């Protein structure tokens, strides 16, 4: 570089040009924010928009600008979340058709739902739930794991009655 700028009128030394380039090379670059991890972005997509902090929707929007297919995927995830929380299982066939049209990789989920579509539609539609039974089964399994190898069924029954 020094040989190129001397004919143009530069009167400084070779070492001065070299030092200038060394400073440029060693100076820190512009500080940019680290992009969010895929896990963080998935959390933003899966949470309800009203539960996100003030900055999270803005950061999610910045990510979605760069990835339009992720924007469409966000729409599908939020619509099925709304469908499940509002118990609108009858909307599931339209949701499945929209997922198949977009070809975003949710086709395996759609194929799994198709295998037992009637039950999947009735699950969020009907008012009955097996959640209470599943909770009791989980609690008894947890007690059983805690007591593993200590005693038999009599002690398990006694402990289960204590937590009822």
Q: Could you walk me through the main structural features you see in this protein, from its secondary elements to its overall organization?
A:
The structure is a single chain. The protein has 164 residues and is mainly alpha-helical. It has 3 domains: 32 residues, no CATH class; 88 residues, no CATH class; 32 residues, no CATH class. It is 67% helix and 0% strand. It has 10 helices and no strands. Helix 5 runs antiparallel to helix 6. The longest helix is centred in the middle third of the chain and has 18 residues. The relative contact order is 0.05. The mean pLDDT is 84.
Which helices and strands, and how do they pair?
Layout: H1 2-5, H2 14-26, H3 38-46, H4 56-66, H5 68-85, H6 92-102, H7 107-115, H8 117-125, H9 131-146, H10 153-162
Helix pairs in contact: 5-6
């Amino acid at each position: 570089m020094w040989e190129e700028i001397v004919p143009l009128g530069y009167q400084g030394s070779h070492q001065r040009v070299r030092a200038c380039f060394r400073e440029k090379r060693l100076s820190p670059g512009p500080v940019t924010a680290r992009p969010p991890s895929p896990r963080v972005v998935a959390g933003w997509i899966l949470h309800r928009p009203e539960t996100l902090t003030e900055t999270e929707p803005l950061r999610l929007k910045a990510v979605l600008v760069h990835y339009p297919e992720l924007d469409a995927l966000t729409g599908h995830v939020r619509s099925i979340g709304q469908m499940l929380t509002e118990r609108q299982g009858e909307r599931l066939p339209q949701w499945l058709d929209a997922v198949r049209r977009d070809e975003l990789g949710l086709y395996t989920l759609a194929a799994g739902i198709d295998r037992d579509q009637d039950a999947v539609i009735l699950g969020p539609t009907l008012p009955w739930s097996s959640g209470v039974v599943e909770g009791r089964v989980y609690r008894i399994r947890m007690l059983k794991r805690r007591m593993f190898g200590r005693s038999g069924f009599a002690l398990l029954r006694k402990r289960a009655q204590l937590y009822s």
